[in-house]
Every structure is written in C-alpha cells, then in structure tokens.
Amino acid sequence: MKKINRTFPSTRLRRTRMQKFSRNLTSENLLTSNDLIWPVFIMDGQNKKKEIKSMPLIYRYSIDNIIPEIDRLVKIGLQAIALFPYIENNKKDQTGSLALDSDNLVCRCVKEIKKYFPELGIICDVALDPYTSHGHDGIIHNDKVNNDKTISILKKQALVQAEAGCDILAPSDMMDGRVSSIRKTLESNGFKDTLIMSYSAKYASCFYGPFRDAIQSSKLLKPINKKSYQMNPANSNEALYEVSMDISEGADMIIIKPGLPYLDIISKCKEEFKIPIFAYQVSGEYSMIMSAAKMGFLNLEDAILESLICFKRAGSDGIFSYFAPHVLEKMNKSR
Ligand code: PBG
Fold first, then answer.
1. C-alpha to C-alpha distance for 228 and 285, rounded to whole angstroms
2. From the candidates 155, 226, 257, 270, which is the catalytic residue?
C-alpha cells in the first residue's frame, strides 16, 4: 500500500463512520443473495422433515419436502444448493457401493430438483463417507484409507452424479490426485462443462461434529479420525500446495473449510491465485452461534451477518452456510 501521511486532526477516520449513509457508501464489501450456497440434508421416504439434534432448526428433508423449500428460496434469490444424503445404516457397506448407484438418493434428488428448477445450481459432494459402514471418505485397505483405490471409486461416483444432472462436483475426500482423475473421466464421457469445486484445503476439524450426526457417520468408527487425509490445522503453506495442485488438475473453484477459524487461509489463497474461492461455514460454526444465541450470550442476527461479511472481507466469492435460508429471507424483507 502506498503510504499517505495521515495525521490528526486533518484526518479523523471517524468522519466516515458517523452516519449510516457514509458508512454504506464507504463499505468495502457487500453480502448479497449471490454469495450464498445452502447445504441441505436429504433423506429417503415421503413427507419427512426431521430436525438434527446438534443443529437446532436444521432439518433432513425427504425429496418431496425439499421441493417447496427450494421453491420459496429460489424466488428470493437462492443461486445454488449442496446436497448431503442421510443414508440408513443397513444400506452402508465397506466400499460405499451405494455411491455408484445411479438411482441413489442424491441422484434421484438432483433429477427431481432439475425438473422444477433447471436454473438452480446443484453441488454434490464427491466422497464416500455417507455410504461407508466405517464413516471414512475412502475405502480401507490394510487398516488405512487407501488413496488410489478410493480414487478409482470416486471418479465413478462423480460420473454418476454428473449424469444425474449435477452442475458442480465437489470432491471433499482429500485424496491426492482425485481432481485430475475426475476431470479426465468427465472429459472422456462428454461432460466437458461440468464444474469442479474442490474442497482443496479441508482441515481435520472438530467443527464437523454436528454434520457427522446429521449424516449419521459419527457413531460408526470411534473415534472417527480423518487426520491421515484431512489437513493439520497448524499448516498454511500446505494449503497453498493443495490449492495449486487442484487448480492445475482441473478444478474451476476451490473451497476452504472450516470457515471462520481459517480466514487467513482464504486470504492467502485469494492473494496468491486470484481464483474463485468459497468458504464453508461448517456445522460446528453454525451450532456455536446458535447455542450462544439461545443462551442469550450474543445476538443471533448480528452474529450471522458479521460472520458472513467477514468471509467476504477475507476474499471469499461465496459462502456455504446453513444460515443461507434465514439470511435470504431477511434480505428479502428489508428490500
Ligand atoms: C465429508 C464432508 C464433511 C463435511 C462436508 N463433507 C465432514 C467430514 O469430513 O467428516 C462437513 C460439513 C459440516 O461440518 O458442515 N466428506
């Protein structure tokens, strides 16, 4: 930054902060409905809507019940959703084979949503954790999550989801080399325009706890430990390598996850690569804010908006947030 010699009282930085209009005019970042992605939990069955214990006011919906929710939200500016399936334990196995079934819950849901809302962006995770009986994102071989064997399954999962009509594939498994495998598979099967939004820097975080309840993967392996593939929270140089590799392997956009504790990573990646970056305000962050608000320790509305604008300030182009429906409704009311 060029140095200006600012001295008091010729400069009083508070002048622009004094009134609402000047605060608005000088605001460097803005949160709009174009910034929000809604992560949604889906389940089998008819007319189901089930609250997730560790995530107050967040539900798993059956496909028929998600359609009216989406209808309401698309009308007020929802751009994209990310689907996460809740799979019953008796349908899970060692290799997550349901992930490759073109008639599985996610594929049926994508088709149904596209039927009614062809313009809504649909994001599907590429990872096996909702489908494996051990809850890991990959397949286990000799007591380890095996990278290369997992990739050979993930690229098939990606293709099945692309065929169902998914717009954006989001590999969230953190295997090495999966983006290039998925990209090659898409190219050679005629899905040249399918986007890849890679969870490039995904940390081994305790903040995913409530999500694992939501998709029922937490109770399976005790304690579930993804440290051999998700990143060490102490590292940031490594995140730059992850991102650069994913971009060179064919990712169009990248995700940093979790969100608020990792704003420095968003900022560094934006600075270094100038690519579209998405933050994931994860389940644990949602539940922290909700429970503090429930206790009366902080104001819910203020906490939501402050957390989201901070993602923008750090350099995110958009944010996955469980608060997305709530915020869209608020934005719509204040219009
Ligand atoms: C799994 C996946 C996880 C999340 C999104 N995809 C959890 C995990 O890695 O165990 C977490 C999302 C959240 O906590 O909200 N592939």
1. 23
2. 257
Q: Which numeric CATH code is attached to 31-333?
A: 3.20.20.70
pLDDT in tens, 128-181: 999 999 999 999 999 899 999 999 999 999 999 999 999 999 999 999 999 999
Spans of all domains in the chain: 31-333
What is the distance between the alpha carbons of residues 51 and 170, in angstroms, rounded to a whole number?
25
> pLDDT tens digits, residue range 91-120?
999 999 999 999 999 999 999 999 999 999
Average pLDDT across the chain, whole number? 96
Rg of the chain, C-alpha, whole Å: 21
For residue 173, what are its two tokens?
């498994």
Cα of 28 vs centre of ligand 1, distance in Å, is: 31
Nearest Cα residue to atom 5 of ligand 1: 172
- Give me the catalytic one of 92, 155, 202, 268: 202
Q: Is the CB of 178 under 6 A from ligand 1?
A: no
What global pTM score does this model have? 0.96
Catalytic annotation on 192?
A: no
